[in-house]
Write a structure and sequence with these properties.
Chain lengths: 272, 331
Amino acid sequence: MKDTAAPYVTTDGRQIGDVLMDMRGITLRFGGVEAIKNISFDIREGEIRAIIGPNGAGKSSMLNVISGFYNPQEGEVWFRGEKRPAMKPFQVARLGIARTFQNIALFDGMSVLDNIMTGRLTHMKTGMLSQMIWKGRAEREEVENRAVVERIIDFLEIQAIRKTPVGRLPYGLKKRVELARALAAEPKLLLLDEPMAGMNVEEKEDMSRFILDVNDEFGTTIALIEHDMGVVMDLSDRVVVMDYGRKIGDGTPSEVRNNQEVIDAYLGVAHD
Amino acid sequence: MSADILYTFEVVINGLMSGVLYALVALGFVLIFKASGIFNYAQGVMALFAALTLVGIMEGQVPFAHVINATFGTDIHTFGWTVPALLGIALTLVVMIVFAWMVHTFVFRHLVGQEPIILFMATIGLAYFLEGVGDLMWGSDIKTLDVGIPQGGSLWVENISAHLGGDDFYGFFIDKLDITASIVAAILVAGLIVFAQYTKQGRAMRAVADDHQAALSVGISLNFIWVLVWSLAGMVALVAGVMWGAKSGVQFSLSLIALKALPVLMLGGFTSIPGAIVGGLIIGVGEKLFEYTVGPMVGGATENWFAYVLALIFLVFRPQGLFGERIIERV
């Protein structure tokens, strides 16, 4: 991708990069129900982009479209300047788009370390046999991958539980391990589906700090869905607001906060 | 040592040896069950099919000879060549991998997300289908399989162990084939464990066994893993088929050994590779010892039912098996 474009500056004054992902006129239907109605928005390199909206607004569906779990009936998905054809989720993951799930999808029987190592699968190139015999290139690759994983483990402060089977961890830590696994892929775009759902205030603060640090230190572009308005306003550079499958707002947190339609959707509006 | 104790030892050792064969079949079940939740009733028939194919290839048999002859009025049976054992095994492995791909692509790919009972029914169908195909392809007569594994009692073991007892003890009788089978099985299991623990595909396989969605999100192709797992099960079936076939001839009753794997799995747990091995050994030793000690009192033939009764007892007291995951129902 060319890097000739002038840096994009939000109205809040933060400088972010080129368009990384561009959703153009996305419409997603389940049978006769339109979950997403003709929505367009973009995600720029290096930013934290939030998707918010009341329950059933279609936020998770949108994240599933980005990560390839759903394929939209209409519209185009552009990634890194190229139109992305309809893809299976594992192909999308191999493009460098990692994600976490609202209800946590981890490998319960495997240790924390093994779970995070699965995030490196897309980076492993050596053949099956050389890995079994554990020689040369395969060994070097394994060592390199372990180094990346150890760095992430340090970063997310989960050294103490690295050998623990994930199934035994409490909820908050599971969420953190899931984030670690997604980070291990060194994604170009990180998708977080309600990273703070079901957490107490302290855990939320921890998670917010990690998300900001990830964005800061690794420069990872992040798109997240969140319910907690306070958290969203503090974290994100730009916000998309959805309601009943439509986009009703798009901009910096301060712009969105003052958008009348958004206020109506969140607080309800009297019909007379 | 008295001869009685020594004979008991011999019974135990022979039990261990036949247990290895049970464990081999059970292993094939566990592989598929862990990775896809499918209880593969056809595992025994796969072993039969692999053995039939191996014999057919080695003897240069024309596949579907009966069908071809009946349709075109020809009278061909063999190509007129023979294939060396190693090449034959390699070719059979290729056939099993193609079979794995076909099973996944034409059957189970369309059943993803269905109830376990539906998947189970599909494997029953598969078992009968495969038995029929095996019959059509290679004929239904009993065949001998000779891949060059030494057979008969090991004189070496007999001579060495003869010193242990008195004049009325002539040493342990252990079939060389059983010894070979144990070594091959040990290598196979070690290979599978190394594969599962240390390779990218092995890690992906464990990941798929655990959570499909999460596996997809880290870039694992479920279809690829499932074909891989069926191929591995095919490979295990081939090894089991070769060993059983060499021991007792390749015949259609071979598919019934699948039933012996059931009690083995109930003992060891459906999701545990060590469980399949230990379960197989316990059943092997248990039924030989039981036949030796209790058999004469009840008129013998206890080997037919001992394994199932043992499995029943386990179902009552430890339904998850020795190594299976504990079933905990959270309310």
